[in-house]
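Dear support,

I submitted the protein below through the web form. The confirmation email said the job was done, but the results page showed an empty box. After a refresh the structure appeared. I'm attaching both so you can tell me whether what I see now is the final result or a partial one.
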Amino acid sequence: MTTEPSSLNERFSAFIYDPFTWLGERRGMARRRRELLSSARGRVLEIGAGTGLNVRHYPDGVDELVLTEPVASMARRLERRAARREGQPRVVVASAECLPFPDDSFDTVVSTLVLCTVPEPDRALEEIRRVLKPDGSLLFIEHVRSDAERWARWQDRLAGPWAAFASGCQCNRNTLDLLAASGMRVAEVDRHKWSGMPRIVRPLAIGSAEVA
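What the results page shows now:
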């Protein structure tokens, strides 16, 4: 794995990510990851794999697991987690907007708490569509813009400060609309709350989408 040096802010974000999300993982997110990833099959690609919180939840039966992460400091932590899994996953340093894989490469693409942060979500979704096989699926957990008007307004007010704190994360991004506009067909979606986390990022959308 070859990486560019991380900035001080990126190194700090990688350092605090697991402690910051610890309570949310304990209060249900780890279970939600496990339930979602039980549907992963065949060749699997995870975008923006971060520190690797999904790694232990993948079923043993997947044919191959490839984990991408664009930030060097995150990727180093990801590699350490990947090394502890039998049949060690391959870690690739790459952004979601520029995936270094041929068309129709994967049966499953996984995105958990990623599309809120990528600078160009439309381009990332185009890349996901490109690398998915025609009968493949995108499995996602994303925090999204609230359906409640009052909390959506608070997300709008706090979007700037939150993005500065959370490495560009957009707490008010309407990811489900982006999925629909990209040509992906949302096959199923459930709404939940990310317990143990700040209220502006609690609304969750969990589900799967297919290439339309």
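Response: this is the final, complete result; the empty box was a page-load delay. Strands lie at 43-46, 64-68, 90-92, 106-112, 132-143, 184-193, 203-211.
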